[in-house]
Design brief:
heterodimer; A: 201 residues; mainly alpha; 11 helices; 0% strand; globular; B: 118 residues; 4 helices
């Protein structure tokens, strides 16, 4: 819980400094966050390598692992549908396209802005950033309540990068392979899913 | 609805493929760093001081990353101007998506994954 509080604190600090324009634009445009992400992957890798059980999980579960990203897509759509029931003025396709972002906020908001306009694009952006934040803050709780897939399911597309360290920490290092697999599949799927949902519903 | 008219099906599919393929390069880098890390981890796993340090450093890097995410959010007028009017709806949708995913993945975890030695 202490760890989650620190994460939230850093995020809020960033929001405040970002809004006050204290951080020079050049720092963000030279892809600093991307490089930090690369460093993070390296560090998570070292942790996994030092605790080498990574591939035993694939032997143990075999094809069951393939169902993980599939279940996350279905679950997100069902969950989004349930929330939609509380908003009578919201279109089905709008609600479902937002949750189809699966946490991949930059791309999903771009697509949704393009197809459905600024307002829904902003909702998609915020909603999917919230998904990443919720995962970073509550993964310990999710793993405790829903088992080792907790953080992977909650993180969606982000399970392969930004939320991977918390998944490794709370689900266990051996789940990193599953998280990366699920995250990659979902990340590649997001543009197709968003477009499909907006066309069909 | 009107903006949909400017897209035909093929164009939309093309956009999707383009967007996904752009991400492949980035993911290759991510995987390369992960694999490099795993290799280093296997090589140095007996240096327990180093491994402990790496765990701490990982934490610190997550904080840094979240700081950057915060800065991006703070700098983005699209978010800052809409958070009060659309934030609640956005949050509820993400909570719905998270719990839907948690429940569905729990079913997979509980009934479809092998329970041997776990």
């Amino acid at each position: 819980m202490r760890n989650s509080a620190i994460i939230l604190l850093f995020f809020i600090l960033g929001v405040c400094l970002g809004e006050e324009n204290v951080i020079p634009e050049s720092m963000m445009t030279m892809d600093l966050p991307t490089y930090v992400l690369y460093v993070l992957m390296l560090l998570v890798g070292v942790g996994v390598g030092a605790d080498w059980k990574a591939f035993t999980i694939l032997k143990k579960h075999k094809f069951g692992i393939l169902l993980v990203p599939f279940s996350i897509v279905i679950g997100s759509l069902i969950g989004g549908g349930v929330v939609k029931l509380f908003f009578s003025d919201m279109l089905w396709k709008d609600a479902l396209s937002v949750v189809s972002g699966l946490g991949y906020y930059s791309l999903s908001s771009l697509f949704i802005t393009d197809i459905r306009g600024e307002e829904l694009g902003a909702i998609a952006l915020m909603s999917n950033i919230f998904r990443e934040l919720i995962t970073l803050l509550f993964t310990p709780f999710f793993v405790w309540l829903f088992g080792c897939l907790g953080g992977i399911a909650s993180g969606g597309a982000t399970a392969m990068d930004t939320t991977l360290p918390v998944i490794a920490k709370y689900s266990g290092k051996e789940w990193v392979v599953v998280a990366v697999f699920s995250g990659i599949v979902l990340t590649l799927l997001v543009p197709f899913l968003v477009t499909f949902v907006l066309q069909v519903f | 609805m009107k903006s949909l008219k400017t897209h035909n099906g093929l164009k939309l599919l093309e956009n999707c493929i383009l967007a996904s393929s752009k991400k492949v390069g980035f993911m290759t880098y991510l995987l390369a760093f992960l694999i490099l890390g795993i290799t280093l981890g296997v090589l140095f796993k007996n240096v327990s001081k180093l491994i402990k340090g790496v765990d701490k450093l990982t934490q610190a890097t997550v904080y840094l990353l979240l700081f950057f995410l915060g800065v991006q959010v703070g700098k983005n007028p699209k978010i800052m101007n809409n958070i009060l009017s659309l934030g609640g709806q956005s949050l509820l949708l993400s909570i719905g998506a998270v719990f839907g995913s948690l429940l569905c993945s729990w079913i997979v975890y509980r009934f479809l994954l092998s329970k041997k030695n776990i």
